[in-house]
Amino acid sequence: MRNIRNYNQVLGFYMPSMFHLHVHTKQNIKKWWKWDDKTLCTFLHEYIHFLQDVSTVAGLYNIYVMGECLADRVNRVYNMNTNQIRVPIPLFPGANNVQNNQNVLDSVEGTIDLNGVDEDTLQITGRATVSNQNLNLNGVIITMHNVHVPYVGGDFLLGNYHISESMAYLGETIMYGNNPLIVQASPNYPYDVVSQLAHFYSPQLENNQPLLFCLCDYSLTFSHSGSALIGFFEHYVNAGNPADWRAFVLNLISRTQVAGTNGMQTYADGLRSIKDLALESLDKKFNNGSYNDIRRWYYNVINRAVEMRLQYPLFIYDFISGGSLKMNMQFRQLLKGLGTPVLSNDYYKTSFTTKVSGCALRKRRAQYLIAAGSITYVLGDACIPCELIDICKAKHKCVGRKCRTAPWKHARKWFACPYGHLWYGWGLKDKELVW
Asked: Per the confidence metrics, is the pTM higher than 0.85?
């Protein structure tokens, strides 16, 4: 689970479904407009991941599955007759489709790690091929499309991981050009996968970064982005490599049907149905009145992001093509409409856009989203340390050895940290994890 969409942490990272964006810099995290262009470029890459998280099927489905996995494990821990709980806690097939949903998510993510392969210099050698795989989900057969991309020495499965990273890297180069002092060189895998693959379809496609960016973005609104992207490549070539690429993309969107909770639906209905699943899943983490402010925040941000996509399908491209961040008016509109996730720097000082379209959320309260993700990791992967340790230390909060070895022991009713408050609120106060 921890490896899913595990981004290039040399420069920064974004934690999907946890709404935490870290930039490796010692510059003042609260004054982004004073950052140098290199830092802003890193921030841009990770902010694109935030936009993917809250406005695409790939991001929203990940939020949904992560939430369902956490709810299933918390319920089982709560109902166990023993207080000694061994982690990681496996998922069981047939348990409210939680394991099935995780299997589907793993399938559409594609190949994460290429063991023993030099990812810096990986070279794709030809067009992708598609094979079908049938998944039996409680008696219902779902056909998954495995997209095989050949490279020197083997092949890998194309999926959300490669497309989301390629899109973010393309966004950097569109906004800041190819200046090596600003846009840092990244490994070919996964950041250059889409551009390399386009080479084998047509030079017009390969050399059109705006089109590649938009096709990546659009493909993430399908249940299997890898298959969708290859289909778009082929359609573009078969259409004669049309010069008006924007009209080409908008025409694709206008004719789209996607898989939703009620079968095949229109593009709008399908995206809204996945959005509703993601929100319901988040509600299971923050399920009482003490979290109303957190719920208002993520409802506001996710609903606005989805409606923004439906009204302006190329809104992320319009943002990244609007000039550098310091002068980018579209970015300022995004800050007003969607804000930011929790931001942190190498001092673990934090910042957070607290007022988003009339919805205010204090920074410390936003960190409950990170704490919920930390509990997801401890139950699912036995990753013990709390993700908030460094942030709490920077704020001179109470941090001790237990934060690294047993953060659940902070579950005190009135003085708990975000991690402990959630643990206590979910009724797990007396539970002890062992591994």
From this structure: yes
